[in-house]
Design goal:
CATH topology of the largest domain: TIM Barrel
Number of domains: 3
Strand order of the largest sheet: 18-19-22-23-24-25
Number of strands: 25
CATH superfamily of the largest domain: Glycosidases
Number of helices: 8
Distance between the termini: 39 Å
CATH architecture of the largest domain: Alpha-Beta Barrel
Strand content: 25-35%
CATH class of the largest domain: Alpha Beta
Shape: globular
Largest sheet: 6 strands, mixed
Structural class: alpha+beta
Length: 500
């Protein structure tokens, strides 16, 4: 019986994999420049906006650059990255606002069958537009005892969408509701009580009928499947975001000298240091409680040379310019004693240039045992503009980690597990998660939940396409959250996070 069950499960998974897979189509990208370029890359929603992941091919004069990609149907935003630094839109393509005030070029890839116009009631259903992936939380999402099911069809192509589900020997039918459309598709949704059940769809238009999945196959849902629980406390939490250097200076002895170079390149911290620290946050805890705050979200607190700490040099210790490991533990304990919670900023996409593995790479170059911790295009490696290694938005002071290296992932997960457990940490805000491969996040979540089952995590900056310079990382925060030695009264702004 076990062998039969295993075979049945394998068949079901194979069918699901087939249902989830969509066709791809060749799309040519072309840009003609006014002057020759050394390199041009294509960055977009299809490659997680990595600025150096997808090189284009030049003509003999290096003015016309082309590339053909296989892309699935839908809208794909993109830009050309000239010489690794200049981001430009495609002058021959439409543009779309990315939601942050920036314009990206967009290409719509149509599936097969779209050459025939779609009309309601014409008795024809475009099969290539129909899609449901039971492994996608957007299509099958159990939440608080309800099961949300989504089905996609071609826009203006289907008159009626029906959901059938079978539970305890009984089959029930409900009509699905179209709830949103884009240029290509209409999305239908149905909500039913969560249970152990099987389900399938039927689309109708005129005399046409289309069943999904095909034949007599059915999708299956079991209670406990596909669950993505969010802790109850996170539902109505009142967050207050603090950049420690910008909040309250309770210990002037750890204030950095803003006039001294911050690293071996000789650069000066252009936005300056204000001297805020963890003791300052602890000292103003009653003030925060009086505001009604129940959750503190701190921007990065680990060792770094900048005031914003998004270029972490050492994940193993708190930045001495804002305090000590003991200060962070005392803050976490005090918050918990008052029924409050602590969320830390997790920057796991890139590091600072004093990070131990990058320092070893600089010293030993191609002989470094850490060369595969980063993505190096050529040697020798040096910290300079338009670096020959991948960096966050090509900023040389923020080398990007190579998450395809399992040793890198193991190191980061060890750090995450340590701080989550030691602080009884309530959550992580994840920096640029769309630029980190999904394989890391699949490993991240169980590590956090084992360390603290009631921990929560947020996704930050998802969809942002603005190349913030190192100072730009915090410029808008500074405008709202400056306080020299006093309480940052105007710091209670909305953090750039969305709960997952």
């Amino acid at each position: 019986m076990r062998r039969r069950a295993a075979i049945a499960t394998l068949i079901l998974l194979t069918l699901w994999a087939g249902w989830a897979q969509e066709s791809t189509y060749p799309v040519q990208f072309r840009v003609e420049l006014e002057r020759p370029a050394e390199k041009v890359y294509l960055a977009g929603s299809f490659n997680e906006w990595q600025p150096r992941a997808t090189p284009m091919q030049p003509d003999a004069e290096k003015r016309v650059w082309t590339l053909t990609l296989q892309l699935p149907p839908g809208a794909h935003q993109y830009k050309f990255v000239v010489n690794g630094t200049d981001w430009i839109t495609d002058p021959k393509a439409p543009t779309i606002d990315d939601g942050n005030g920036n314009l990206n070029s967009v290409v719509w890839v149509e599936p097969d069958g779209y050459s025939r116009p779609a009309r309601l009631g014409d008795g024809h259903i475009t099969r290539s537009g129909v899609h449901h992936n039971p492994n996608d939380l957007r299509d099958r999402n159990p939440v608080h005892g309800k099961l949300y099911l989504r089905l996609r069809t071609r826009k203006d192509d289907v008159a009626q969408g029906l959901l059938f589900y079978r539970q305890n020997g009984r089959t029930q039918r409900i009509e699905m509701t179209p709830f949103v459309s884009d240029a290509l598709y209409t999305y239908y949704r149905a909500v039913i009580p969560e249970a152990n059940l099987e389900y399938w769809f039927e689309l109708r238009d005129g005399n046409a009928r289309l069943r999904l999945p095909d034949g007599n196959a059915r999708y299956r849902h079991r209670i406990g499947d596909h669950r993505f629980e969010v802790p109850d406390w996170a539902q109505d939490a009142i967050y207050y975001q603090i950049m420690p250097d910008r909040f309250y200076n309770a210990d002037p002895t750890n204030d950095p000298d803003a006039n001294k170079p911050i690293d071996f390149t000789g650069r000066i911290e252009g936005d300056g240091f204000y001297g805020g620290d963890l003791q300052g946050i602890l000292k103003q805890l009653d003030y925060l409680r009086d505001l009604g705050v129940d959750t503190l979200y701190l921007t990065p607190v680990f060792a770094s040379v900048t005031h914003h700490n998004y270029d972490i040099d050492d994940y193993e210790r708190v930045d001495p310019e804002i305090g000590t490991d003991a200060d962070l533990k005392a803050l976490a304990d005090a918050l918990h004693q008052h029924g409050m919670r602590l969320v830390l900023d997790g920057v796991f996409n890139h590091v600072g240039i004093y990070f131990f593995a990058f320092q070893d790479l600089l010293r030993h170059q191609e002989n470094s045992p850490f060369r595969d911790w980063f993505i190096v295009e050529r040697f020798p490696v040096a910290v300079e503009p338009n670096p020959n290694y991948w960096a966050w938005w090509n900023i040389p002071y923020m080398p990007k980690l190579n998450h395809n290296n399992p040793i890198v992932r193991r190191y980061l997960l060890g750090v995450i597990e340590r701080w989550t457990r030691e602080l009884n940490l309530d959550g992580w805000r994840l920096d640029v998660p769309n630029e980190v491969p999904d394989v890391f996040w699949r490993e991240f979540r169980p590590v956090v939940r084992r360390a603290n089952p009631n921990a929560h995590h947020h996704r930050g900056d998802l969809g942002r396409r603005r190349a913030l310079a190192a100072r730009g990382y915090v410029r808008q925060r500074d405008e709202l959250c400056m306080a020299r030695g006093g309480v940052g009264v105007r710091c209670a702004w909305q953090p750039e996070t969305v709960a997952v």
